[in-house]
Structures are given as structure tokens and as C-alpha cells.
Amino acid sequence: MERHYGMDWLRVGAFALLILYHIGMVFVPWDFHVKTAHPIPWVAIPMMAANSWRLMLLFVISGYASRALLSKGAHLGSFITARSKRLLIPLLFGVIFIVPVQPWIELAVKYHYPHDFAWFWLHDYFGFHRLHGIALPTWQHLWFVGYLWCYTLALTLLIAAGAWLRAQRGFDWLFGSLFGGALIVVVPIVWLLGVDILLPGARETHDPLHDGVAHLHYFPGFLFGFALARSAPAMAAIGRWWKPAGVVALVAYGVVAAIEWRWPGNTMPANPWGVTFATARVVQGWCAVIALAGFADSHWNYDTPWRRTLTEAVFPFYIVHQTIIVLVEFWLLPLHAPPLAEFAVLLPATVAGCWAFYLVGREIGWLRPLIGLRLRPRENAA
């Protein structure tokens, strides 16, 4: 299977946007681990531009990348073993060493937790209990890594059961041939709206045993990406429909933004506006995924010297970025700086911290697998 550089660039862009999005969480009225002293309601408007598709896109890309890895000829057992090492080792490292400062800061800021971080880490963090409603220990933003491993395991079982070949043929027919490929836009939207109807008002919990709404969204997205990677008909359909999908996504975002402007914050508008908001958000989300995939295929499918470095840096950046954001904002709070000044510090500090984490970590052999990097050949040989 030929490498699709456009998907590499899309993955880099998606994770870069996620970092910016999490910085934005400091300033919107929505709940987050640490907030600016004066949240700004209108910041939710640009946040809504990515809110509905940022995670779905990441799962689609992850499914696509999984197919590329499996296509290199690895046996299923070798594939799941390699993916488990690549995902679970950084997840465990992150839960033990990277994430803990986040709940400590949240407890200190919101609930006046009386102890320092060392006491918290030694006595409370590994208590397997809840403290002021916060589950400890926790994986915070690393839930994505845990879910990705679960979906990879489920996919491996599907392939082992012999169910995938028929599924791939059905995928090619449904999304590539039927109705000129238009169903690649329509069917996932209908599915996602159906999930919302089936589970009205359900919110993601990031608890894998009690998170049906997330699994019904993201596992199909992961499978979609996996099937897409070997489906020339579906990629051709995306090539035909990505521009109209982009227009629809922009129109739907306009509806979402208008309703958010009229009913800001956590205020839920009465129907029909509540239903309109939810429907527009679903339409915006999937159409944006198709538009971005089509754009990447049409305009970004090329290599540069920076691509390899950036694609390698993505996982370490993801592991550490939210801890840096929460920690820097915690240090800024006593200064009572205006939000713009906080943002002007948060953005470069987060980027610099992520680069430092990656550049230092990649040079330390034993640290590489802990931050999501492969061992170098000489280290494998050793």
C-alpha cells in the first residue's frame, strides 16, 4: 500500500488544531481543569468551528493509518502486539507521570485541596477513588489513546473472524458505486443523527464501560478510515464530493454559530432551536471530515523533509500538551493578567514545551517508547 502523504499532513494539522483547541478551553465558559478568571463567551464561536469534527477526524485518520500498518505484511498477532506496545506503554507512562498534575491543579483551584503535589501523588492519586467527583487515577486527555487501543483490538478480532473481506466489498459498493458515491456524505450523517435520537442528551464520559455514545460515534469512524485506506471507489467519491461537503459544512457551522451566539455558554435553547443546533452540528462535523480528507488527497499528497519529523512528533506532543497548558495557566492565575496576555503566554509556552519534550525524549533511547516513539534500529538490535 502506497503511503498517502496527505493523510500524514492531515494528522499533523488535526493534532495541531487540537492543541490550539485545548488552549481555547481555558477561555470559554465550558468546564475545564483550570480557567481564566474571566471566561469570554464569544470564544465559543470559533471553538465551534472545530468542536464537532476534531475527534471524529482523528479516529478516521487513525483507522486509515492502522490499515497502512497492517498492509506492510504483518501477521495479525504481530500487528496487535506492536500496536499494544505503541499505545499502552505511553498511556501507562502518561497516567503515572504526565497526567497527575492536572487533577491536582483542578482540585487546588476549584476545591482548595490543601496538600502539595508530592503529597497528592503519593497519597491520593493512586487511591482508586473519587475526590470531589474526580476519578483517581485518571487518564484525562489520554482517553483517546485508550479508546484507540480498544478499537484496534476489536478490529483485529473482526479480521480474525473472517468478517472483514465482505465488509470491505460492501463499503466499496455503498460509498463508492451507489448513487455516484454521494452516500459517503449521507449515510454517516444519518447514522450519527440516529445515535443522537437513540441516546438523547447523552454525553461522553471517557469511561470505556459506560460511554455508549462515544463508541457509537468513534468506532464506526475508525472502521471507516480503515476501510477507506484500501477503497479506490470511496476515495474517488470523496474526490467528487469534498467541495460540496465543504460548502455544506460552512453553512451548517453558520447555523451552529448563530445559535451559540443567541444562547451562549451552557444555556440550552428550547426546540426547535435545540434540535436545529444538534442536527447542524452533526452535518457540519461529518461534512468537514469529508471536505478535509478530500482537500488532503487533492492538495497535500506530497513529501517534504519536515514531514517525517512532524509525523513522529505528533504523539509526544499529544501526550504532554494538555499538562503544559494546565500547568502554565495555573502559574498565570496569581498574576491576574487579562485573557489576551494569558493567551500570548500559553500558546508559545505550550509549543515550546511540546518541542522540548519531543526533542529531548527522542535522543534518550529508553525514553522513546514511553513517549510514543519507536526504538531506533540500533536499540532494537541491542
Per the principal axes of the C-alpha atoms, what is the gross shape? globular
Low-pLDDT sequence parts? none
Largest sheet: 2 strands, antiparallel
Percent range of helical residues:
55-70%
Give the overall pLDDT as a whole number.
95
What count of domains describes the coordinates?
1
% residues in beta strands: under 5%
- The total of helices stands at 15
- How many angstroms separate the termini? 30 Å
Output the strand order for the largest sheet.
1-2
Give me the Rg, rounded: 21 Å
Tally of DSSP β-strands: 2
Return the structural class: mainly alpha
Explained architecture:
- With 382 residues, this protein is mostly helical.
- It has one domain (5-99, 139-381).
- It has helices at 5-24, 44-51, 54-70, 76-98, 101-111, 117-124, 143-160, 164-177, 183-198, 212-228, 232-262, 273-299, 305-332, 339-361, 377-381, and strands spanning 129-131, 134-136.
- Strand 1 (129-131) and strand 2 (134-136) form a beta hairpin.
- The longest helix has 31 residues, at 232-262.
